[in-house]
Amino acid sequence: MPINVKLDEMLHARRMTLTELAERVDITLANLSILKTGKAKAIRFSTLEAICEVLQCQPGDLLAYGTEE
Amino acid sequence: MTDTAFPAGRKDPLLIAARLIAVFMMVIMGIAMGALLIALPVVLVKQADVIAELAKQGFSGNPGPIIWAIAGVMVLALLPLGLIFRFLVTLNQLIDSVGQGEPFAAENAGRLSRMGWLALAVQLSAIPLGALGYWIAQQLKGMEGVQADVDIGFSGNGLVLALLLFILARIFRHGAAMREELEGTV
Asked: For chains A and B, what is the number of CB pairs under 8 angstroms?
């Protein structure tokens, strides 16, 4: 998939675990895990908004097109 | 995904009624098939008794073809009964999957499509059965105390049912694809 999700790096930079983020954005750990591993087919604006709010970042910080990890 | 748009599940009265009716009809079909399987060899082995009974009722023609036609009707009747039984088994599986709250699955689209083909096959299998039954009725016409009416054959309702099932199969295939996409949405 040419869209890469950089959630892992963002969490690492903020020293936050996925479980902690799941609790703060009120999204199940399973769903966040799907997003983190790049298995998600789509992301809701509400999910993106909640993550950006907690991580204090822009959508572009989380998603990148065509860049290899 | 744990949330569902069909929370009623196994306690839904519609599903309970549908399951009961389907099982009841399966039992009826099973009994009918069993009765035919028992009656078929009896008619063939006891041909002399059947001929005697036909003569007693005032049948004056050649009884040989009538006996073979009766046996033929029994064999031909087994096919639609078996098809209806298979249809009902598939319907039960469909009801179960709706009860589990997962109706939009590719498996159900396949089931509906199969049911459509089965409904069509039932209609087609009724044509030779109806024709043979009609022939027997013609031969026995005018016999004292014998009322031979045949009302079996291709029915418009059956054709509409098959078409409806094919269209529903398509809707479910589309629904299953949409559900799959929804499951990948976070």
From this structure: 22
**B181–A41 CB contact, under 8 Å:** yes
For residue A57, what are the CA distances in angstroms to A63, B26, B115, B123? 11, 62, 53, 64
Is residue B181 within 8 angstroms of chain A, CB to CB? yes
Contacts of A40 in chain B (CB under 8 A): 184-186
For chain B, what is the mean pLDDT? 87
Please tell me the predicted confidence (pLDDT) of residue B166: 98
- Beta-carbon separation of B185 and A27 below 8 A: no
**Chain B residues within 8 A of A18 when measuring between CB atoms:** none
B4 within domain boundaries:
no
**Around Cβ A50, how many Cβ atoms within 10 Å?**
16
Cβ A18 vs Cβ A29: under 8 Å: yes
Domains in chain B, number = 1
Split at pLDDT 50, 70, 90, the class of B156 is: confident
ipTM over 0.85: no
CATH fourth-level superfamily of A3-59? lambda repressor-like DNA-binding domains (1.10.260.40)
